[in-house]
Amino acid sequence: MWDYTDKVKQTFLHPKNAGEIENPDAVGEVGSILCGDALKLTLRIDKNSGRIIDAKFQTFGCASAIASSSVLTELIKGKTVDEALMINNQDIAHYLGGLPKEKMHCSVMGREALEAAIANYRGEKKPVEVGGKIICKCFEVTEEKIRKVALENHLTTVEDVTNFTKAGGGCGSCISDIELILKDLWSSSAAQDHPQASKRMTNLRKIELIQEVLDQEIRPRLQADGGDIELKDIVGNRVIVSFRALCVGCPMGNITIQGIQDKLRELVSSDILVEEE
What we know:
Layout: H1 6-13, E1 26-32, E2 37-45, E3 52-60, H2 63-76, H3 81-84, H4 89-95, H5 104-121, E4 134-136, E5 141-142, H6 143-153, H7 158-165, H8 175-187, H9 189-193, H10 203-224, E6 227-235, E7 238-245, H11 253-267, E8 273-276
Parallel strand pairs: 7-8
Antiparallel strand pairs: 1-2, 2-3, 4-5, 6-7
């Protein structure tokens, strides 16, 4: 039996946003019932702001697939299309408190459905990994998908690829092909220099760390001098804050912002930009 977290169990038993939006603005369909997992994601998008105001899913699959789909809809509602695309499969798994390694492909399916839906909304072709040369005929997994998922999640073994894509988990005849793909992928300088070639912090973990640094490192110092600060929003690498109490209108505000930015760059990520609302 799979070792599911309590969050996965509760989300599976009580999923949110199950169903289908009537006349949706975007539709993303991935997987196949014949291959064991399928997901249809429908979105309602405000055309003025570009924000996703509703999201629903229909999933054929296991508890992890249903839980991952439900979490995906919760994560993307209220975000702009571009902000939603920043959510990756690791974010979905992290929100659930983790998934069994053999079930990580369920989080990948959620990310693929999101990409397909947004491509549909923008009138673009489906993501490249949907087409191309089929490597795993049992689960209809393409070479492009294996390369993309391997890069994004730093997969280096066939077992890893199977856990994240299901490729190689059927008859096994494609295992040698997967090994060759991984060898070519990680021996190339292009892969080594790829921004996702090393395991990266999930967006949700990044947000948690930013909040922790502000609460534990920044606010106590400001409060000691009668000031305070509030986190207003995080948009990509931009951290938007608002001064409170005696910090409001302080002539040293720009220096304080720079100090906060330096601390966040030191403890969270070197690409963070801090702005005052």
